[in-house]
Structure formats: structure tokens, C-alpha cells
Specification:
180 residues, alpha+beta, four-stranded antiparallel β-sheet, two-stranded antiparallel sheet, 7 helices, globular
Length: 180
Amino acid sequence: MNQIMAAMTKRRSIRRYTSDPVPEEVLADILRAVQCSPSWANTQCWEIVVIRDRNVKEQLQGVLSPKNPAAIAMTSAPVVLAVCGRVKTSGYYKGTAVTGLGDWMLFDLGLVTQNILLAATSYNLGTVVVGAFDHDMAGSFLRLPQDVKAAVLIPLGYPDHSPGPTGRRAVDEFVHHNTY
């Protein structure tokens, strides 16, 4: 199995972390993985906020539902990455949406998120994608400009547990040939 497939197979949602810091050179490689992400017409609509400050992490923890299982991860992870995007950039030409799906920002940020997850996994770091939160309040805490929106928060650090694999649909359940 090649390295990319191995990372995809190994990756798990991690919600508890050790206090070990993420080395700067490793974080730099993960951010280079963002830089390498594909995007619609190479618009590169992403903006990443790297959060290490405990106060900011606590503010972000407060925008999650108390029942969100990732709430503890927001403050226990040494780093949280806020994956943000510039609206009306991806999927637009001269200010007009040019696809039937409108703004492609979330699609592009999904590609960025996957690159982050795989790069982190390759360094034995854990991540969890947090998407259920008050996006406007998070944007306020992060001081985002009006045209930049927080899409996901990704706690990042060394796992303090090793969850097992989750169930997956068989390939033949979702692959269709020529027509649905």
C-alpha cells in the first residue's frame, strides 16, 4: 500500500490529545499541504488561522454545543486550525457564479481539509473535523474580515488514544458504471 493510501486508511477522528507540542517544521509541512491543494480555477480561496493561544481556543470551544464530542479537543489539542474561505471567489468569474452549484468555496475547503488530515496523519498527529459550531461567532473571535468565513475547526496534536476502524460501505454499494 502506498503512503497516501496508508494515511487514508490510518486516519481517525481524535478528540483527546497529549500536551506534547506540534514541532514547527511539522506544522510548516501541514501548511504546505494546504498550499498544494487544488482549487476551482486556481482561486485558492482559503485562509488558515493557526491558534495556539489558550484564551482563543476557549472562546472557540464556547461556540460549540456543550454536547459536541469535540468540545474538549478544542482546548486539549496544542494547535487548532481554523479553515476559512473567501466567499464569492471560487466558482465565480467577474463577480458572477458560473456553475449551477454557485459558490465552490466549501468544495475547495473540503480539499484543503483532506490535505491537512492526510499530512497530519503522515506525522502520526491526530485531528478531528469540527463543523457544528456558531460560524459567525467564531468569525468574530478570530477577527475575520466580512468576506472570509470559518468553515471548519481542526484540533491538531498527538493522540492520547487509538480508536479502531469505523464501518465503511462496500465499494460496490456506491460505485455505478455508465449510469446510476
